[in-house]
Structure formats: structure tokens, C-alpha cells
Amino acid sequence: MLPYPQIDPVAIAIGPLKIHWYGLMYLIGIGGAWLLASRRVQRFAPEWNKDKLSDLVFWVALGVILGGRLGYVLFYDLAAYLADPAKILRVWEGGMSFHGGLIGVLLAVWLFGRRNDKSFFALMDFIAPLVPIGLGAGRIGNFINAELWGKATDLPWAMIFPTDPAQLPRHPSQLYQFALEGVALFVILWLYTRKPRPVMSVSGLFAVCYGIFRFVVEFVRVPDAQLGYLAFGWLTMGQLLCIPMVLIGAGMMVWAYQREGRGA
């Protein structure tokens, strides 16, 4: 068993002002995405300047934060937030939904594309390889918060999390998700986009890979207590939301290559 590193969730405290690691991870994710985008933007839109790129990153970040928070409220814990609406603002306590954030990004990109005369799917293909940076950083934030831990196990890398009432050795599922959704997904998309690809295929590959990675890790991750398992004694909300994501992503890739083959 590995010892859980006792990291104070508060990174910086100045009097009543507290800056949490969870929030800093989002800033790292957004900053890292902007740096990577600035390297790739000339191939995507040579006419864009730094201000235009910054506008896109701002819109996407807004979609991630608002969509992620509202998605968690709607998909995972609506009753608790209705009982205490002010809890919605306490983002440092955790409670962000990837699928909600994805919906927020889709809406933000659609609006940005309309205002800037850019194709929705071309923009999504440009953004998709940037997303794993934020996903990986977010999972490190979950780990520091000692939240979203896994099921009990006797594997040698199991950890006892301070927030676990049972104090059992558990899968560090946050680190599994960091490795898959952050590192592996970034490498896959980065290698795939080294050559020109059909429009929509990069977005489709992102959806397929993320959906599969998340679906697999959910088998060893404890579901949200207020929801539990939704079907068959093992299907979680995360898995339920990933199934259509994988199917739609696969359909997008097939359609993208078929359109290219027809010369569309």
C-alpha cells in the first residue's frame, strides 16, 4: 500500500483569502491549453492574432466552468443544490461534470464560430487536442481534494484517503483518470493531428477515446453516494453518459472519412 500524500487543499492563504489547488488546476489547464493553441494556430487560422486566440480560449474556459458546474448540479446532485443554492458558488469544494463542461464548450464554440465565421467542427477539431491538458490537471485537483476515490482493493498501489469514513485501501482512480484522460488522450490526439485529417474526425476520435477511458475507470471508481449504480448493479451515471459519446464519436469519424472519400 502507498501512503496518501497529505497535501493541504488550500495552496495559498492570505488572511481570509484562500486559493485552493482545485482552482489552480483549472488555471493551469486553461493556461496550458492556450500555450499549445498558440503553437498550432498558424496552421489552423494564419490570419488570427493573439487577441483572437485569447477570445477563443476565454469562450471555451467559460463553457467549461459554467457547463461543468451546472452539469454536475443537474446530472449528479440536483436535490442538494436546490436545498442550498449558494453551494453552486462554492466550486473549490469540487463538483464539476465533464459531460456538462462538454455541453458548455459545444455551445461556446458554436457562438464563437458564428461571430467569427468559422466552421463549428473545424473549431472543435482545433480545440480537441487541447482539452486533455485541462482534464489531467482537473484529476490532479480531485486527487489533492481526496475526492472521487476508487473501490477497496489489495493492490500494492492502493491508498487510504483521509476523506474515506471507512479508511480502506482504495484504487487511486483519480490518478488512473489522469493517466488515461490526461496523458494518454493527449498523446493519441497529438500524434493523430500531426497530419491533416478530415474535418470532424479529430473531434470524433476525442469522443471515442475519452468515452472508453472514462467507462473503463468507472468500474473501479466509487459512484456518487447520492446516485449509486443506475442499472444492472454496475452502470454508473458517468458510464451512462459515455455510451452515447462513444457511439456519436465513432459515427463522426466514419462520416468524416466517407465525406473525404467522396471529395466533399
TrEMBL record:
Record's InterPro entries? Lgt
Task: Name its cellular compartments.
Answer: Cell membrane
Q: Which residues cross the membrane?
A: 19-36, 56-76, 96-113, 120-140, 175-192, 199-217, 229-257
Reading the lineage from the top rank, the first entry is Bacteria
| Chief localisation class | membrane
The entry's keywords:
Cell membrane, Lipoprotein, Membrane, Transferase, Transmembrane, Transmembrane helix
| Entry's EC annotation | 2.5.1.145
Q: Which GO molecular function annotations are given, in alphabetical order?
A: phosphatidylglycerol-prolipoprotein diacylglyceryl transferase activity
* A Gene Ontology term for the protein's cellular component: plasma membrane
Membrane disposition: Multi-pass membrane protein
Query: So, what pathway does this thing act in?
Result: Protein modification; lipoprotein biosynthesis (diacylglyceryl transfer)
| Residue sites binding a 1,2-diacyl-sn-glycero-3-phospho-(1'-sn-glycerol) per the record | R139
Any keyword Lipoprotein? yes
Family stated for the protein in its record: Belongs to the Lgt family.
Q: Which PANTHER family match?
A: PHOSPHATIDYLGLYCEROL--PROLIPOPROTEIN DIACYLGLYCERYL TRANSFERASE, PROLIPOPROTEIN DIACYLGLYCERYL TRANSFERASE
Briefly, what is this protein's role? Catalyzes the transfer of the diacylglyceryl group from phosphatidylglycerol to the sulfhydryl group of the N-terminal cysteine of a prolipoprotein, the first step in the formation of mature lipoproteins.
Q: What is this protein called?
A: Phosphatidylglycerol--prolipoprotein diacylglyceryl transferase
> What is the source species?
Pseudomonas flexibilis
Q: Give the taxonomic lineage as stored in the record.
A: Bacteria, Pseudomonadati, Pseudomonadota, Gammaproteobacteria, Pseudomonadales
